[in-house]
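Training component of the fellowship. As part of building independent skills, the fellow (R.M.) carried out the full modelling exercise for a liganded target. The chosen ligand was adenosine-5'-triphosphate. The inputs are recorded below so that the supervisory panel can assess the work.
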Amino acid sequence: MQEVILLKPGEIFLKGQNRKLFESALLRNLKHKVSKFGEFEVKNVESVISIKTQHSDLDSLIPQISKVFGISSYCKALLVSKDLQTIKESAVKILSELSEFSTFKIEAKRASKDFPLTSFQICSEVGAYVVKMLNFKVDVNNPDVVLKVEIRIDGAYLATSHERGAGGLPSGTSGGGAVLISGGIDSPVAAYMMAKRGMLLSAIHFATPPYTSARSEIKVRKILEKLSEFSGDISFFKPEFTKIQEAIKKSCHNELFTIISRRVMIKTAEKIATSNNCSCLITGESLGQVASQTMEAIECTSAVASIPIFRPLIGSDKEEIIKIAKKIDTFKISIEPFEDCCSIFSPTHPKLKPKIETVKKEEQKIENLENLIKETIENLHEDRIKN
Ligand code: ATP
Ligand code: MG
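Fellow's submitted model of the complex:
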């Protein structure tokens, strides 16, 4: 008899020929995750992953496992030998240790056909034994507790509670993306959503010292540390935006300041992304949320990029975004006060419907913009957030 954690992969079953690739990525990510918490054996048998240990604490892994993408559900189970009497006694042991319930149901699955009883027979035999020994009632429609018995090649697994996993696809199966991260509520959520689809993250934060302080960077770092618990390691790039923003301020019409800043950010970010294995940019924009996120403004920012810009929050309301931010625990960091590099120079009346031709013309007034971008990239600070 041994306690194990059983994990069921998520959408991997949709992957056909590529299934092996997804399974091995998930196994690799899980092994890496659990290795920091003790000595565990992580194995994939017939597309179900089990985690076992001789000496370490299995329970300590549960909060970690809920952050691994590619898992649809997981449970703590008891692994016993494939012998009917042992299964019956184990069922009684598990149910007798639970409190506050009176009705139950057994659900059986015979994944390994070398067991002599059918699923239906397992349910009736085990159910009858529990009724006899513990005097609980069977309720197949609305039971207080469901005990699942799964007969697999290496034994019988018994479990009462199944938790939802993090879902998504294993990290590293969808290439690399660079998130433009501000320190606000939205961009960390956008990054999380793309990481959930298997994307490896890099992060780019534009700072404007001395207008923004080191505290802003520390805040972004704390957010990235939280994100890396889900996404794995993150490369963190910190371009200095001061000279560029001062040049925009000096040369361009004030009402176009924000939109031109965004365009230069995207231009610079694209160069950083493509030289660091990232084939897309990610932002936390949500349609109509602020002046720089109207349809016309988004058209202006998108026009400078030649790689895709993913905006996973484009159709989300702030409330929905906050709900995810709370779930991934970035919300409380995001609401700490900080100086935003754009809001410092921001116009009181930004242009709501900027015209791309006007914006381009205005942008040309900036002297040496290409050189300023080049200089920013040459002086780029890079860091690595390890998980
Ligand atoms: P957030 O909550 O992510 O800051 P926001 O609602 O404040 O978003 P904006 O300030 O308009 O929106 O920023 C829109 C997007 O531009 C952000 O989601 C982020 O992706 C990017 N961005 C803004 N400021 C910065 C910055 N200093 N460095 C990098 N990216 C930024
Ligand atoms: Mg912001």
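The panel noted the following from the submitted structure. The domain at 176-385 is CATH 3.40.50.620 (Rossmann fold). Residues 182, 184, 340 surround magnesium ion (ligand 2) (CB under 6 Å).
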